[in-house]
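Reopening: Phosphonate ABC transporter ATP-binding protein still failing for me.
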Amino acid sequence: MLQISELTKTYATGDTALSEVTLDVPEGQIVGLIGPSGAGKSTLIRCINRLVEPTAGQIQLGRVDLATIGHRELRRQRRRIGMIFQEYSLVERLTVMENVLSGRLGYVPFWRSFTRRFPPEDIQRAYQLLDRVGLMAQADKRADALSGGQRQRVGIARALAQQPELLLVDEPTASLDPRTSRQIMRLITEICVEQRLPAIINIHDVPLAQQFVQRIVGLHAGRIVFDDHPAALNDATLTTIYGEEDWNPNREDDGSTPANAPQAVGDAGTSRESLEAAAR
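Support: Ran it again with your exact input. Result attached.
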């Protein structure tokens, strides 16, 4: 279980990105992190694995407080945390297989990592992961020859190669088309369910989050302002998270419905277009 208590991040400029955030993520739960730009979503994810150093608070993963350990121990603990990035962060000149195996670098001696010679069991595991994400046929291709969706699948396989206890996902669909976005979210959530792997997914696409995650946490100005089941999102909660807006796409100032209005989706009567616009 991940337990975050009163996590705060204040920069040297005096700007506060996170203010006393408290959040528990139990085993197997998939959490969608939503909120406007600048709300602190990426900062929260990066504080957990200390790509950003927190100012105060606790980040407890099992029995270890990640916020207070030294850098040598932090390198070891990061093996327990898989990270999937928005911009993939692949080594473009390496093959798909080599990129996946890079998820094992924290477990092998330096000479093996330098020469990219990995144990047979790591290679077998990498092939299994490539098969699971649908890229077995691409194993020997260079990463720079892949599409965006394929690159994100490589990133997923690389994170899973660590055999993590927690998965952090930073805007995995921001650069993808709608169909590929759904495929990637479906893949991530299915794997998390299969492996009982807890995950925090920072995502701008609110309808996509509603479709795939089990719980939504909304951030506004560095504070948690919503924490509930996706079905609990409505006009009032969206306003709390994103600010004042007319969330009904079919309503004009005079109360009439325009002929070209988008069709509403979901119980709350919100459309994908309006929520995506709000999330941006």
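Residues 202 and 234 are 19 Å apart (CA to CA). If you still see a failure, please send the error message rather than a screenshot.
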